Amino acid sequence: MNNTNPFGEYDDGGDAPTSRDETEPRHIPVPRTSIEDTDLPLPTPAPTPFPSPPPSPLLLEHRVLKALLGAWALAACSAEETVAVEDHLGDCGACADEALRLREAVGLLHRPESLDLDPALRTRVLEACLDRRPPRIPVPFWATPYDAETARLDALLQDIGDAEWHAPVRLRWFDGNEPTSRRTTVAGVLTHLLTVDGLVAVTLGLDDPLETAADAPTPSARTEAFWRAAPFPPTRSVRGPWREQAHNLVRTVAFAGGGSGRLPVPYGGFELPLCDSMLDRAFETWVHAGDIADAVDYPYEPPSPRHLHAMIDLGARMLPSALAARRQAGLAAPGRTRHLVPAGVPGRSLRLEIEGLGGGEWLIPLDSPGALASPDHEVAHVALDGVEFCQLAADHVPPEEAAAGQVGDREAIRDVLFAAASLSRM
């Protein structure tokens, strides 16, 4: 029977030699003896050094402590001075009130700055680069607002999480004399932009994201058709097609050159030249990016002043036609003349003054779209902030609350403000 001896050596019970002589002493380590089991004295521990006494507080006169209040408010005192000042503030009410006033003043001097980049930063960087090396194929100036706004929206979409793509958003526009809305999600807003931008894509010979485009000529009809055709609610996957289409639009108009700006883009009931349509798409992108930012509780700034001015100019140029359409539908007061003022003939005018970002002045003809706006025939003057005018044109501000200043014909002012709200659409 095979076995193993207690020392870990194999023993078959026979005469086979082992690896160690039996007479050799076994080397088994003995247990160590604790000093506590002997009569030896225990070692004396090293003495613990006494902690150094805290520094004695500064004893300063009242006038010196009062002179240190400004430095204390700016956190510029030493540790000893800070302790002395704060101990004094607990005993002196006059100095405590002064310290509170100085600390509040310091808070006004150091306003918290947003971590978000300046919306004009991208434009400034591109302009600086292009000043050094002009582009071989430049983007037309009327397409740069769309390029900038799609890039800003894309940066916002990159920062939101999966769940936020399903955050509720309400699209708003003005229908007749009443505001209306449509409930959707962040992903649904992006599909709306994708399908309406497709009108420009078709004009440029690019693919249409909507397969049933013939049955949906208007922006709202295209959006509803896309939502109905989708088997599932939109998700973040729509970002890829939207982003690719936006890049293709900018690239195509750059290769087509500035002359392509005269191509007509149909919107169902009306059409815009391509140069104005790209501005319109930039405006819609900014407005709906703001809707998305509100839904996910994220700050979002207006466009750069130059781009905002171009968007305001487009709205001001569309006002006469919008006013005439509302008058024809019986939603605005009839003109003061029996017949429409012929094209090129001066007629009643309203001065639209836009203050702040993208500001300027526009004379709006009131009697017919073709009439010549003339300062000699000015009957009203309206002043609005630039961003507020754009919010009015997007039906994010009620017409009754939009104008900051109104002088002149109240009926004409009301008609123009409601015409501006009617520029909005889904």
Automatic annotation (TrEMBL):
Region of interest (Disordered), residue spans: 1-55
Keywords: Transcription, Transcription regulation
UniProt xrefs under Gene3D superfamilies: Anti-sigma factor, zinc-finger domain, dinb family like domain
Residue ranges of every copy of the Mycothiol-dependent maleylpyruvate isomerase metal-binding domain listed in the record: 147-293
Compositionally biased region (Pro residues): 42-55
Species in which this protein is naturally found: Streptomyces aurantiacus
One Pfam family per UniProt: MDMPI_N
InterPro entries given in the database record: Anti_sigma_zinc_sf, DinB/YfiT-like, MDMPI_metal-binding
GO MF term set: metal ion binding
Biased composition (Basic and acidic residues): 18-27
Protein name: Mycothiol-dependent maleylpyruvate isomerase metal-binding domain-containing protein
